[in-house]
Structures are given as C-alpha cells and as structure tokens.
Amino acid sequence: MKKILVVVCCGNLNGNTDKLANSFIEGLLETGHEVKKVFLGNKDIKGCKGCGACQLNHHICAIRDDMQDLYPLVNECDTIVIASPLYFWSISAIAKSFIDRLYALSTNDKYPRKNSILLMTAGDNQDWTFDHSLSYYHILTEALGWNDLGSYLAGGCKGESGNHSIDEKNLGEVYNFGKKII
C-alpha cells in the first residue's frame, strides 16, 4: 500500500474542498493506504521568492515558516494529493505557494518521483470551469516527472458565508475514486 499525503489547500476547515478530501481519504483508508492529511488553511506558507538559496544550501529553503514541517512529509510519501478550491479559474493561492516551494526539493531541476492526484471544488459548473486548472496541473506533473493518477473535479459547489453545498453524489464518487487508488 502507498503512503499518501493529502494537502488541503483552502482556508475553510469543513468547507467543500475539505469535505471532498475527507471522503477521498475514507476511500483510501478502506483499501489500506497510509494517509496523512495536512490542512494548509491554518498554516503560514509564504510564496517562493525565487532566491535560489535552496539550491545552494542542501535543499534548505531560506524562508522560515510552516513549510519546513511539510518537506519531510513530501519526501516520505509515494503520492501527493492536492485538494484546492477553484479561485478565479485557477488553483488557490495557498496551493500555488505550496507547489512553488517544492522547488527546494529539486536537484538540477529534477524532482523526487511521486504519484499525484488533483481534487477540486468550484461554485461554477460550466464545461470549461476547470480547464485552466487542469492544464496547469498536467504541465506541473509533466515538469516534475510525477505520475498523474487522475483528478476529481466537483463543480456546482456554492460555498458562501459558511453555507457549503457539496452534494452526496460528489462525496460518493470521490470516495469510490479513493478506493480505486492502488
């Protein structure tokens, strides 16, 4: 079984994205995977400054924040799951900061081999709602050399003023997706 790190990149604990991630985790656990969930909404994760210090200093990022605690988790896992709400037709800023800071783990622009999965929620539910995010994710996985195990995209999830509306259909489907990860 795999060691799976689920990184929830939203600011709303128990919101739509967190609920989607939790259902996915339930499916993963049912099949015996070892799962660690990290909720970034209460973490201090700054954006990459592009200083390159990590490449000169044995993969140690110059920025001192909560990302330092996440690097070992990323190194230890087989699979990274990025769970993000859709904000202005892209991944959340928290997700982008987390991803950018993974540069510290590279050696000569080569990254540790990982499997990856993308989970997303959005209030919008057009045919093109997730196009930009999926394009970014596919380019990211190719650039990092990660093996894309798929994605689950839940549109039509309004989340205004604490009124979260992810439906049982999405939660059931993502649970089943989690059970299929081998």
Strands of the biggest beta sheet: in what spatial order?
Answer: 2-1-3-4-5
Secondary-structure-based class equals alpha/beta
The counted number of beta strands is: 5
- Top-tier CATH class: Alpha Beta
Q: How would you name the oligomeric state of the polypeptide chains in this document?
A: single chain
Work out the strand percent: 15-25%
Order of helices and strands: EHEHHEHEHEH
Number of domains: 1
Q: What Rg do the Cα atoms give?
A: 16 Å
Mean pLDDT: 94
CATH superfamily: Flavodoxin domain
Task: Supply the CATH architecture.
Answer: 3-Layer(aba) Sandwich
Low-pLDDT runs: none
Note the overall shape.
globular
Task: Examine the coordinates and then state which fold CATH places here, giving the name of the CATH topology.
Answer: Rossmann fold
Please describe what this structure looks like.
The protein has helices spanning 16-30, 53-56, 67-76, 93-101, 131-144, 168-180, and strands at residues 3-8, 34-39, 79-85, 115-121, 147-154. The relative contact order is 0.21. It contains 6 helices and 5 strands; from the N terminus they run E-H-E-H-H-E-H-E-H-E-H. It is of the alpha/beta class and 182 residues long. Helix content is 36%, strand content 19%.
